[in-house]
């Protein structure tokens, strides 16, 4: 098993961050703003890219998070704005392999622990029956884990063989169905189709692929405890595809909202790709202790 080298020169990183925060010049080449009309939740509100630097802003009722990708450092930074915290993750290939190994090991460990708990419950049940007591209501951990994903809707991703033009960019329309009802259409394209400089196209593409690769590192554990109910009949899309627009449908088939891309090629302040002043490093153990107080 390859292990990631988790230490990197921090002096250079702080010098870069200090330079960014102290510079008013703006070098970002493109901003993608996602305009929402009606009731349709955008996957993200804004994306900004400058060469190997990428920023994605996501704000919902439950979270307000920014994801920064630094392709030169192979580093993902999550900014948790409500807590003014940041969390950084190495995403070079060794680090991703290590993350996947840890996630798989964690899943196996949890499987073993649940098995031990189930055996203890069975032993307790046997003792209760000897005393003439009923233990029919005692939980079955194996059954609980097996049915954990059953509450999820059955999701189908379907091709439409239609193309549309969004912000001057041709994109491919794909439908999302839940329990046999069409709920959404997304129109996908790749960064290479966007009218932005080639260096930004490459940086954007690499950021999307790397973040997807990081998410896939946890598949071993997620399949164990949250099995996906998604099926797809759609053609495989490019790994760096992103939705340029969304159409959300009500159960009666009417349109209840839209999300549409607006592309802006004006420069953006470099500080947008840096950790804001006043943000502290996220510490999982501190958060657990805070929640338990």
Describe the structure concisely.
With 293 residues, this protein is of the alpha+beta class.
Kindly state the percentage of residues in helix: 25-40%
Summarize the biggest pleated sheet.
13 strands, mixed
pLDDT averaged residue by residue: 79
State the secondary-structure class.
Answer: alpha+beta
Radius of gyration: 23 Å
The overall number of domains is 1
Give the strand content: 25-35%
Side by side, the strands of the main sheet go: 11-8-9-10-12-13-2-3-4-5-6-7-15
Alpha carbon gap, first and last residue: 38 Å
Please report the total strand number as a whole number.
15
| Rough outline | globular
Query: Could you give the order of the helices and strands?
Result: HEEEEEEEHHEEEHHEEEEEH
